[in-house]
Amino acid sequence: MRSLIAAIAIIAAASVIAHADPDPKRKVVVLEYRSHSSALKGIAARIQETMGKQTSLQLLGLDQTRTQYGADLDAALVKCAGEADCLAGIGHKVGASDVVLVAVSELGDVILTIQRIDVSQKKAVTRIADSLPAGAEPTEDQINGYLARLLAPTDFMRYGVIDIVANLPDAIVTVGNQSRGKTPIKPLKLPAPAEYVVKIEKEGYESFTSRINLPPDGELKVEANLSLKGGERAWYAHWYVLVPAGIIVAGATGATIYYVTRSGPSDTVPVMGTIE
């Protein structure tokens, strides 16, 4: 039985073509369907949790989907019985691009089937099946393997936002050795996690440089104040700067600037920048 299911899984995964460059931040519904089996309790939630750690997808679990769809969601799942076009209707109603259906059944062993359904195409674009001994649970490595086959490679690309604010217009902004335009500029959405060097320059003014670590799904605000070359040093180059998250001391070789990290409406974290 195990070898048969493995063969089915390989054939199914190889015969289905995934999305071409799907939106890595699109809404995806994760649902669970059981065919007279109580095995693998919480498996859909585990898969959703791992997807949340590895991707920037907007994920809706069963409870969140029920809130948007209505109280008859469970009856609709039973009626669909795993049929892709029917499940696509559920996804369409809640504004999702994809539905991930985690199905559990038993044929001696426990059969775990996961399919990703494209809502617009109304069909499964990826399908995986695995056979597990009764009482066994898939390991984290196994779940990672399922997702690697289930999702397109671009789904694992994560992003963060850098919001750059300068005190002068028409200053040249360079992030990661790439020109991003002149101030004022819109917030930049960039691959994360990653380290970036932010540089802001304007002729006749001291340039500003800061090295930052951009977290996935996070937003960093970089505030730069450029001063005239050879002019009187700005106040922030001489004094302690008090900000909500702590105190930054101006360095001997240049002014200390800070940016704030926003993981919530009130979180602020200062980080060093320098005037060159």
Q: Helices and strands in order, then pairings?
A:
Elements: H1 2-15, E1 27-34, H2 43-54, E2 58-60, H3 62-69, H4 73-80, H5 84-93, E3 98-107, E4 109-118, E5 123-132, H6 140-150, E6 158-166, E7 172-175, E8 178-182, E9 188-192, E10 194-201, E11 208-214, E12 219-224, E13 241-243, E14 246-248, E15 256-257, E16 259-262, E17 273-275
Parallel strand pairs: 1-2, 1-3, 6-12
Antiparallel strand pairs: 3-4, 4-5, 6-9, 7-8, 7-10, 10-11, 11-17, 12-16, 13-14, 15-17
Helix pairs in contact: 2-6, 4-5
Report on the structure:
There is one protein chain. Helices cover 23% and strands 36% of the residues. By secondary structure, it is α+β, with helices and mostly antiparallel strands. The protein has a six-stranded antiparallel beta sheet with strand order 8-7-10-11-17-15, with no helix packed on it. It has a five-stranded mixed beta sheet with strand order 2-1-3-4-5, with helices on both faces. Strand 1, helix 2 (43-54) and strand 2 form a beta-alpha-beta unit. The longest helix has 14 residues, at 2-15. It is elongated and about 80 Å long. It starts with a helix and ends with a strand. 29% of the residues are buried.
Rounded to an integer in angstroms, the radius of gyration calculated over CA atoms is 25 Å
Unreliable stretches: 1-19, 235-275
Q: How does the major sheet shape up?
A: 6 strands, antiparallel
Following the backbone from N to C, one meets helices and strands in this order, namely: HEHEHHHEEEHEEEEEEEEEEEE
Order of strands across the widest beta sheet? 8-7-10-11-17-15
Mean pLDDT: 80
